[in-house]
Amino acid sequence: MKVTIVGAGNMGRGIGRRMVAGGNEVELVDQNPEDSRTLAEELGELATSNRSVTGEVVVLALPYEAVAAAVAEHQEGIAGRVVIDIVNPVDWSTMETVTTPPGTSAAEETAQLVPEGTKVVKAFNTTFAKTLLAGEVAGQKLQVLIAGDDEQAKKTVASLVEAGGMTALDVGPLRRARMLEQVGLFHIAIQQQIGTGFASALSLRWDAP
Ligand SMILES: NC(=O)c1ccc[n+]([C@@H]2O[C@H](COP(=O)([O-])OP(=O)(O)OC[C@H]3O[C@@H](n4cnc5c(N)ncnc54)[C@H](OP(=O)(O)O)[C@@H]3O)[C@@H](O)[C@H]2O)c1
Q1: Cβ(158)–Cβ(168) under 8 Å?
Q2: Could you tell me if 105 and 122 are in contact, meaning their C-beta atoms sit under 8 angstroms apart?
Q3: What is the pLDDT of residues 25-39, one digit of tens each?
Q4: DSSP string, 151-192
Q5: Element (H, E) at 84
Q6: Which atom of ligand 1 is closest in space to residue 35's alpha carbon?
């Protein structure tokens, strides 16, 4: 499968690494083409740099504030695709709240921006970029929490996650992104306290019945 990652920053690198590990083609698109070229070289022969979006799955690895403009710019390439929103809309001045209005989430806002028929899935916002490079922490696979309203789209994302050596957990409809973004905020906010330097991982575990 070809996965386009818009945004060749920290998360672009981490998710790109896992996608390539799963044997997928990775297309990198960045506002600075030099950055996407450099990351494509780093990720190896399965990765390319492009100015437009042509993948079947599109990861928006962008700051919250940049998502609307990028969606508008890449409308054509995004239309009808599976779009992964990874945003944590954190209020960095306090690190206590999200910046989305009550009753919605960054992912639901993205779903309002994309062309009709495009399936938005929330994923990867609870995994730190650093940990995605190895795909595991303390010998345990990363767990990627996934929310969305389209079952097939969630299955597509889950299969990419599993192929990349991680585990996927479907946590329900897209509105659960409101909670996932709070979990993302929590994980960021506690970093100073627990002192891992953004190298920790969250996961849910249980014994099989
Ligand atoms: N870092 C983490 O551990 C982590 C974990 C979970 C979720 N997230 C979320 O992931 C998203 C990305 O975070 P990050 O840490 O990867 O940020 P980052 O390192 O700043 O990377 C963002 C990249 O997007 C590029 N960009 C900005 N606007 C663009 C546009 N309109 N079109 C194309 N590219 C554009 C930036 O280019 P410039 O450098 O030129 O500005 C930069 O290369 C954020 O929403 C964040 O909340 C991050």
Answers
A1: yes
A2: yes
A3: 999 999 999 999 999
A4: HHHHHHHHHHHHHTT-EEEEEESGGGHHHHHHHHHHHHHTHH
A5: strand 82-85
A6: 43
Please indicate, yes or no, if residue 76 is contained in any of the structural domains. Answer: yes
**CATH code, domain with 109:** 3.40.50.720
Could you report the per-residue pLDDT of 95-148, keeping only the tens digit for each? 999 999 999 999 999 999 999 999 999 999 999 999 999 999 999 999 999 999
- Measured from the CA of 13, which atom of ligand 1 is nearest? 16
How many domains is the chain partitioned into structurally?
1
Nearest CA to ligand 1 atom 32: 31
Q: Ligand 1: list residues with CB < 6 Å.
A: 6-12, 30-32, 35, 61-64, 66, 69-70, 86-88, 125, 128-129, 198
C-alpha 133/C-alpha 16 separation (Å) is 9
